[in-house]
């Protein structure tokens, strides 16, 4: 947006006033044409809805390459299967069409991963690969429609299927959770956290690992023996609820080593963990509350579960950033649980995770549906910073998108229509 130029003292006052008025109108008109609005930050760090479009956010990022359209679904069950993994010089697209690696520099297809024997399409994938490039995918059976029952672990440096495991039960994509650590792959096959739905393997070769040992030197400390009620996992943590002589216990283990990090008996005899929001730090759903725990197991704070959205939350720096309501994000301090800020953003804004600097990356379609506007969110104070725009297919602007990045580029996976109006996904890379 243009800025006003300085005036000389030789111009008569009436002329100067007239020029200033014309300049003001010119600036406002250009501002509206650009769609740019200046951010307004209040004293308490709350960002108004009109400030969610920072000046300069309409700058379009330069496209480095685009890959051919992949015939895959982006909504419904396909959304659970869709992931973007970035490792070294490879970008991996996991979709209902399969697992494909592309060169990060030019977008050329490098490999198509082989599915495990007896497996059909991917239905759930881990959120990321580990530092060695190992990723995990849950596949449907060849004749399965909606269920997942076959685990495939891939080396994304070359697409090799390292090992696979077929489970006795078939679960829906919404129930399953898969995470990859440096040494282990952990799978949960139901949202209830049942013991028979929990599986843990060595990432390198698929050797099955046992359930972590219960707390205490011997089970004999409990008159009737300890009973494991539920097992859940997220990030690098495994959370186990046991009962010792009817008294509930909460124990947390490191997922890679299986070593106990802390345990303590719960005060409430009706204690129950109903879900896990994060593992680093441990944030648990306990009934209608979210409870945060320190590294030693001390309870830090509680918040009503209605304030946090598990599908749009991320731990960034010293804050938990989460969707708050329909059109806002909020930051909560990890130590005290106090709300640090609230940023009102356009409805439909998605959270894509954190970048290399630790800042959350968000995005929303412009009102005309022609662009995806990317934003950085400062976790300490909620400041919204522009990160550029990328073009969208306006016919599919409301569909789910995937965004990933490395030090040089941002990778955007968007639904598109081709000339025959068939649906598909297109992966593109933009200079960041």
Automatic annotation (TrEMBL):
It comes from the Bacteria. Residues 152-362 form the Pyrrolo-quinoline quinone repeat domain. InterPro entries: PQQ_rpt_dom (IPR002372), Quinoprotein_ADH-like_sf (IPR011047), WD40/YVTN_repeat-like_dom_sf (IPR015943). This is Pyrrolo-quinoline quinone repeat domain-containing protein.
């Amino acid at each position: 947006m243009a800025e006003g130029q300085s005036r000389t003292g030789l111009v008569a006052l009436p002329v100067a006033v007239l020029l200033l008025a014309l300049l003001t109108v010119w600036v406002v008109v250009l501002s509206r044409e650009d769609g740019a609005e200046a951010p307004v930050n209040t004293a308490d760090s709350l960002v108004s809805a009109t400030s969610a479009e920072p000046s300069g956010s309409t700058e379009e990022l330069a496209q480095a390459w685009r890959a051919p359209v992949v015939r895959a679904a982006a909504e419904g069950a396909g959304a659970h299967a869709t992931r973007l993994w970035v490792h070294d010089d490879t970008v991996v697209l996991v979709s209902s069409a399969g697992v494909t690696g592309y060169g990060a520099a030019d977008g050329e297809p490098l490999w198509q991963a082989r599915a495990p024997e007896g497996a059909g399409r991917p239905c759930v994938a881990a959120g990321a690969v580990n530092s060695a490039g190992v990723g995990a995918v849950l596949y449907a059976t060849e004749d399965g429609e909606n269920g997942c029952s076959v685990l495939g672990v891939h080396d994304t440096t070359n697409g090799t299927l390292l090992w696979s495991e077929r489970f006795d039960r078939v679960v829906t994509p919404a129930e399953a959770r898969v995470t990859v650590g440096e040494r282990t792959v952990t799978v949960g096959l139901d949202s209830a956290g049942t013991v028979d739905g929990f599986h843990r393997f060595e990432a390198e070769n698929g050797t099955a690992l046992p359930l972590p040992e219960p707390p205490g030197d011997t089970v004999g400390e409990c008159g009737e023996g300890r009973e494991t009620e539920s097992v859940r996992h997220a990030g690098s943590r495994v959370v186990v609820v046991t009962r010792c002589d009817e008294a509930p216990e909460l124990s947390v283990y490191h997922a890679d080593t299986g070593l106990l990090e802390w345990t303590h008996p719960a005060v409430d005899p009706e204690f129950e963990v109903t879900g896990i929001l994060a593992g680093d730090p441990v944030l648990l759903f306990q009934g209608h509350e979210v409870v945060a725990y320190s590294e030693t197991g001390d309870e830090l704070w509680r918040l009503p579960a209605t304030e946090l959205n598990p599908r749009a939350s991320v731990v960034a720096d010293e804050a938990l950033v989460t969707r708050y309501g329909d059109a806002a994000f909020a930051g909560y301090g990890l130590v005290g649980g106090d709300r640090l800020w609230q940023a009102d953003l356009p409805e439909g804004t998605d959270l894509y995770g954190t970048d290399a600097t630790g800042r959350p990356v968000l995005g929303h379609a412009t009102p005309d549906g022609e662009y995806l506007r990317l934003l950085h969110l400062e976790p300490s104070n909620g400041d919204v910073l522009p990160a550029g725009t990328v073009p969208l297919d306006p016919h599919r602007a409301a569909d789910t998108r995937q965004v990933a990045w490395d030090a040089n580029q941002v990778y955007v996976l968007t639904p598109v229509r081709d000339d025959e109006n068939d649906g598909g996904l297109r992966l593109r890379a933009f200079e960041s």
